[in-house]
Predict the 3D structure of the following.
Amino acid sequence: MALDDELALIGIRIAREAGELAQRRRAEGVRIAATKSGVADIVTAADREVEALIRARLAEVRPDDGFFGEESDAAQGTSGITWVVDPIDGTVNYAYGIPAYAVSIAAVSGEPDPERWTALAGAVYAPATDELFHATRGGGAWLDRGRDVQPERLAVNPGPWAAGALLATGFGYDPATHAGDLARLATVMPLARDIRRIGSASLDLASVAAGRLDGYFERGLNPWDHAAGVLLVTEAGGRVGGSPGDRPGKTMTIAAGGDLYTALVEAIAIH
Ligand code: LIP
């Protein structure tokens, strides 16, 4: 079996088990364990427990790989492969009981730096809908809806967007950034028929890959927010980037199909 396929199967299996744990903990009641960059940037006990489960499962089958997760210390591996993990992406939704959250797991080669890594496999699992989005480099992007249903091949919306595009975005945890994010939204709005703010970057990106959104843009994402979702979009025929000429990252993440990507980059760049 090709390495990318092996990594994808590992990510899919672990994402599903981790998502089932997150869903059980949600049903039992969620405890805020701490705040991080600010009072709005919360981490729940479940975030930490789910990441520990993912980390342990990966160590069982890929002990020489690196780990780069949201809730625990990074570890450099010796295999050249690093797992980039957001155990519960959409933590605020999860804490409030809004069922828009996902487990995001990506396997990358090279430096564990989103500016330099190559994503080989990714899995984004949404427990609330039992939808598992996954992709391998060159192998396309797929949606598994359940154990007994054939996987569906994903494709971004190629356009045209006569009524405007259905776009998603997000806002950071730091209130000081909100005015700039809203001003940027105003410059993009002429391209849109409407805006969605789902609250989970990996689900936003999976939705672009699935054609459920026409495009997505957000400033301030962390590597684990976008590592798997970016691969979903490119393998579904879409384009991803950051500020003009950059890769997706903290400064900006943009994802869309067709000419919409170019229009989004131009609109955001003038802001
Ligand atoms: C979240 C992202 C979301 C963004 C939030 C937060 P988390 O990640 O998925 O798109 O708007 O500010 O960064 O913190 O739930 O893993």
The first strand starts at residue 32 and ends at 35. Residues 3-28 form the longest helix (26 residues). The pocket of L-MYO-inositol-1-phosphate is lined by residues 70, 86, 89-91, 170, 172-173, 199-201, 218, 225 (CB under 6 Å). The mean pLDDT is 95.
